[in-house]
Specification:
The complex is a heterodimer of chains A (251) and B (323).
Chain A lengths: L3 E10 L2 E11 L4 E5 L6 H9 L6 E6 L2 E2 L5 H6 L2 E3 L12 H6 L10 H5 L3 H21 L14 H14 L4 E5 L7 H16 L3 E5 L3 H7 L2 E6 L2 E6 L1 H5 L2 H8 L2
Parallel strand pairs in A: 3-8, 3-9, 6-7, 7-8
Antiparallel strand pairs in A: 1-2, 1-4, 4-5, 9-10
Chain B lengths: L1 H6 L1 H4 L3 H26 L7 H18 L4 H23 L4 H21 L1 H4 L5 E2 L10 H24 L1 H11 L1 H6 L4 H27 L1 E2 L6 H14 L5 H16 L1 H6 L1 H14 L4 H13 L12 H13 L1
Antiparallel strand pairs in B: 1-2
Helix pairs in contact in B: 3-8, 3-11, 3-12, 3-13, 4-5, 4-6, 4-11, 5-11, 8-9, 12-13, 12-15
The chains are: A alpha/beta (251), B mainly alpha (323).
Chain lengths: 251, 323
């Protein structure tokens, strides 16, 4: 199986080196944790993997395709998907519509076909609705399908973002601090959801500060500090590593 | 019921002037309906569509009047030229951020106005051009009204189809969060350009209808305030709906004409109405209707804890991955 890889990527902003020759590979069917102190480059790496930034050196690769210079939209069409630290929903649309928009790469009807309501559009619309409805029930939003997204509570927004990301038929899913602002019970639900996605063969990259959550759920963990990888390995190896404890976990 | 009223309008409108006014609203709506996808759905604040309207009107006048082309063909060509001009305007300007895009469309409207004035041989310059009417059976006021009603209904249907399907959601994503639009794979620039060209086509067709209703056009027919008027109709009607801007168009066109005191206020009236709406109902009058509807249906906004259905999630994801 192919993996989503960052190969020795470097990213600088002005004179500041945010990432320096960082490598990471995300396998299908694993949960990969990415931890590190604030400013260590976690979100920069996620933005490079998802295409919002272009690397100054190094490559982002999937299926032997060099994605480094490809736009974000190209990732969407090959199933590389993400959520945001601060949920980015469409406030005037319903929960259902917010999820359906994630299916854009798989909608084949063009503007003209849509405008003239050719038969394919109705068929496609029903299929998208059915898929989104199933996914929303799956993440626990089945009771608010028709609610406007601006009326959602925080946890609901986070889970809606996951459902939207899954509508892309995600092969790789990158979650940017998904547990932020969630209660203990909700983190439990999140953990269950991530486990299910992993068991379905999706590669999940988890950028997170809740370290006990990360060490509990992840198959592998990468630790960044000052734009470099300081430790990479199994959760227990990382947790007990002297340098990780010194710069991040606090001994 | 509204539909019935519109279809039977010529029989109860009373005088021809009211019928003319209804036809004018229809012609404006052909433009505003298309522009609504650009402003209301995609959030691209074009104030220059009066330029495209002028191009459509002059194209129709020159083709059908000067060269004797059949009016039906002339309307279609006007739409085509409007779409082409929309493409040429959109290609460089739709990459600009909001404010600069608005300025580019404003500049376009001014340039069109100057070009029309300069090309005396073609457009009659400041003297203007007379515009032919429509052939049988559309040559009477009622006939013209029905023709415009049909085209207005067509535009409404087309935009309605776009708005309620994947395209509409993608356009709203471009409006509300470009980052989200990119994340789900919406080709942002191409989506903007597509609806802009569409709005160019409807503006061109609207120009032909509008010109014919005016029966005589000069560069002063297409003053910049008209472009602002289209913009205001959509903002007052509400972004992200179709009924709202349609009501906005009808009310803003008809009120100053039917109530004489308002006509004296002119632009002041539009300004005042815009101010009231922006301050009191920033989402537009279309949203007011939605709120009333929600109240009537008594939709409860109770909160329930989120509890995932893991078996269902697993089945859904596996089904997606199998295809």
């Amino acid at each position: 199986m192919s993996s989503l890889q960052a190969r020795e990527v470097t990213k600088t902003f002005g004179g500041l080196t945010a990432l320096s020759k960082v490598s990471l590979d995300l396998h299908p069917g694993e949960v990969h944790g990415l931890i590190g102190p604030n400013g260590s480059g976690k979100t920069t790496l996620l933005n490079l993997l998802s295409g919002y930034y272009k690397p100054d050196a190094g490559q982002i690769v999937l299926d032997d395709e060099d994605l480094s210079a490809k736009p974000v939209q190209r990732r969407a069409s090959i199933g590389v998907s993400r959520t945001f630290q601060k949920p980015r929903l469409l406030p005037t649309l319903t929960v259902l519509d917010n999820a359906i928009v994630g299916g854009w790469p798989h909608a084949k009807c063009g503007f003209v076909a849509t405008a003239f309501s050719l038969p394919c559009t109705g068929h496609e619309e029903r299929e998208m609705r059915a898929r989104a409805t199933e996914l929303l029930h799956g993440v626990g939003l089945g009771h608010v399908l028709q609610r406007r997204a601006n009326l959602l509570e925080h946890a609901e927004q986070r889970f809606l973002e996951i459902a939207r990301a899954l509508m892309l038929r995600a092969r790789f899913l990158m979650l940017d601090e998904p547990a932020g602002g969630l209660t203990g019970v909700e983190i439990g639900h999140l953990s269950d959801i991530i486990t299910v996605l992993r068991d379905c063969g999706i590669g999940v990259l988890l950028v997170e500060h809740h370290t006990d959550f990360v060490f509990r759920i992840c198959d592998r963990v990468t630790t960044l500090d000052l734009g470099r990888v300081i430790k990479h390995g199994l959760p227990d190896e990382v947790r007990t590593d002297a340098e990780v404890r010194r710069v991040y976990l606090g001994a | 019921m509204v539909l019935l009223a519109l279809v039977t309008l010529p029989f109860w409108a009373g005088d021809e002037y009211k019928l003319h006014l209804a036809a004018l609203i229809g012609a404006y709506w052909v433009l505003i309906g298309g522009l609504n996808l650009v402003i209301g759905y995609t959030g691209q604040l074009s104030v220059g569509h009066v330029g495209l309207l002028a191009i459509g009107a002059y194209a129709f006048a020159i083709l059908a009047g000067t060269h004797g082309v059949h009016p039906a063909v002339a309307i279609a060509i006007s739409g085509g030229i409007g779409g082409l001009c929309g493409l040429l305007l959109g290609l460089p300007s739709l990459r600009l951020p909001g404010f600069y895009f608005a300025m580019a469309t404003l500049a376009f409207a001014l340039i069109v106005s100057e070009l029309i004035l300069a090309q005396t041989a073609l457009t009659g310059g400041g003297v203007g051009l007379s515009v032919p009417g429509f052939p049988e059976p559309f040559d009477s006021p009622a006939g013209t009204y029905y023709l415009i009603l049909a085209l207005g209904a067509l535009v409404t249907w087309l935009t309605w189809n776009v708005a309620r399907r994947m395209w509409g959601r993608g356009l709203i994503a471009v409006r509300d969060s470009v980052v989200t639009a990119q994340a789900v794979g919406v080709p942002v620039f191409r989506a903007k350009l597509t609806v802009f060209v569409f709005s160019g086509i409807t503006a061109g067709v609207a120009g032909a209808l509008f010109g014919s209703l005016q029966s005589y056009i000069t560069p002063d027919t297409f003053i910049f305030e008209l472009g602002l008027f289209f913009f205001v109709c959509i903002i007052i009607g509400g972004r992200g709906g179709i009924i709202g801007p349609l009501l906005g168009t009808a009310v803003l066109t008809a009120l100053p004409e039917l109530a004489a005191p308002l006509a004296k206020l002119g632009t002041f009236f539009y300004g005042l109405l815009l101010l009231i709406v922006v301050l009191l109902v920033p989402e537009g009058i279309g949203r007011l209707f939605e709120i009333v509807l929600e109240r009537v249906r008594g939709r409860k906004v109770d909160s329930m804890p989120v509890s995932p259905d893991l078996a269902r999630l697993s089945a859904a994801v596996r089904a997606d991955r199998a295809t």
